[in-house]
TrEMBL record:
Pfam families (UniProt xref): Hydrolase_3
Alphabetized Gene3D superfamilies for the sequence: 3.30.1240.10, HAD superfamily/HAD-like
GO cellular component terms given for this protein: cytosol
Phylogenetic placement of the source organism: Bacteria, Bacillati, Bacillota, Clostridia, Eubacteriales
Native organism: Clostridium paraputrificum
A Gene Ontology molecular function term of the record: magnesium ion binding
UniProt protein name: Uncharacterized protein
UniProt cross-references to NCBIfam families, sorted A to Z: Cof-subfamily (TIGR00099), HAD-SF-IIB (TIGR01484)
Cited PROSITE patterns: COF_1, COF_2
Chain coiled-coil ranges: none
Length: 273
């Protein structure tokens, strides 16, 4: 058998097109590479439940890096998990509450919200919550006391501000002064907060060690700031054409955009040699 590769891809703006779908060509080549013994991994800032829904579409052997690297594993096994220290989480909560910006904390299976429901929850879920019914995996943390009840569960956090971007910028500046966290953004209207020393690059390294794969045999695809560590660590870091200039500069190569199947075309080029 040829040398085994670890192929890691971001979801939004990379593996997924603008409709939120994986193209049939991309699915086909990934599944064929898995059959040949290569490892494919979704690497995303999304929570585990959301990432797993795409892993299940690709196939049972698909690995998952989620919460921007705070978690890595297969669909059946945890390989790496980095929880946010309790005191750090409390400080993050207090800062964002002082700015009155919606904040979401994530564990592997649950999402905790401070003010409003996450946009990715279905209309049916929201209707159930509005009538006082529980939704599995959805927990309000409207007060500091209710927030503290779940300390030790939090992997990462995301703040989203749709209207006042200047307020978001001020909050980001204040968060960067806190110890124990790394602050970044994947979109203009969010702040992504992960434990210090945790990122997608570290999670990729954990998978590499677990599967005993040479570093030069790691291929990573991404388009955002939260993909930089992964692209830099990989033997071949590939930026999408829709990436920011910063991401393109740190990549080894630039492929087509996510709507033109950039992941598919690069994998086809590499593995047809």
């Amino acid at each position: 058998m040829k040398e085994k590769y670890l192929i890691c891809s971001d979801l939004d703006g990379t593996l997924l097109n603008s409709k939120g779908e994986i193209s049939s060509n991309t699915l086909s080549i990934i599944r064929n590479l898995q059959k040949d013994g290569h490892i494919f991994c979704i690497s995303t800032g999304r929570m585990y439940k959301s990432a797993k829904s795409f892993a299940d579409i690709i196939g049972a052997d698909t690995c998952i890096i989620c919460s921007n690297g705070a978690y890595a594993g297969t669909t059946t096994e945890d390989i790496h998990k980095s929880n946010m220290p309790p005191e750090t989480a409390i400080n993050v909560y207090k800062v964002m509450q002082s700015f009155n910006i919606p904040l979401y904390f994530f564990s592997k299976d649950d999402v905790y919200y401070t003010k409003v429901l996450p946009l990715f929850f279905s209309k049916e879920d929201m209707q159930r919550l509005s009538t006082g019914s529980n939704v599995n995996g959805m927990k309000p943390i409207l007060t500091l006391d209710s927030f503290k009840e779940h300390l030790g569960n939090y992997l990462n956090a995301i703040a989203i501000e749709e209207e006042d971007l200047s307020l978001l910028k001020k909050a980001k500046t204040k968060l960067k002064k806190l110890s124990g966290i790394y602050v970044q953004s994947s979109y203009f209207n969010n702040i992504e907060i992960i434990p210090h020393g945790t990122d997608k690059g570290l999670a990729v390294k954990k998978l590499q060690e677990h599967f005993n794969i040479n570093r030069e045999n790691i291929i990573a695809f991404g388009d955002g700031e939260n993909d930089l560590s992964m692209l830099k660590y990989a033997g071949i870091g590939v930026a999408m054409d829709n990436s920011t200039d910063e991401v393109k500069k740190c990549a080894d190569r630039v492929t087509l955009n996510n709507n033109d199947e950039g992941v598919y075309h690069t994998l086809k080029e590499i593995f047809s040699k």
